[in-house]
Design goal:
Blueprint: H1 2-10, H2 12-21, H3 29-34, H4 43-56, H5 59-78, H6 81-87
Length: 88
């Protein structure tokens, strides 16, 4: 899964935490990408993401996913596996 490689390259602390928990992006990112973030983020933000998506394409979806993980990386590292899965 390519998103796992992006996380590994750009967010090594997050990648290490997710690997420790045994969590791959299939557990959390599939819903992000299938719904284009509509199920997880407030609608005003989703509209802005969709505008960027229509202009720049799928790259924007991966960038948003990396930003979301970056913003929670300090919290994610401290969580146990069950809590991390629910949180994501």
């Amino acid at each position: 899964w390519q998103f796992d490689r992006l996380v590994e390259g750009f967010l090594p602390k997050v990648h290490a935490a997710l690997t420790r928990h045994g969590v791959s992006s299939e557990y959390y990112a599939i819903q992000w990408f299938l719904t284009l973030y509509a199920s997880d983020l407030p609608q005003p933000i989703v509209r802005r993401i969709w505008d960027r998506f229509l202009v720049a394409g799928w790259r924007v979806m991966a960038q948003i996913g990396l930003v979301l993980l970056y913003r929670i990386q300090d919290v994610l590292i401290e969580m146990d596996t069950c809590r991390a899965l629910v949180f994501l």
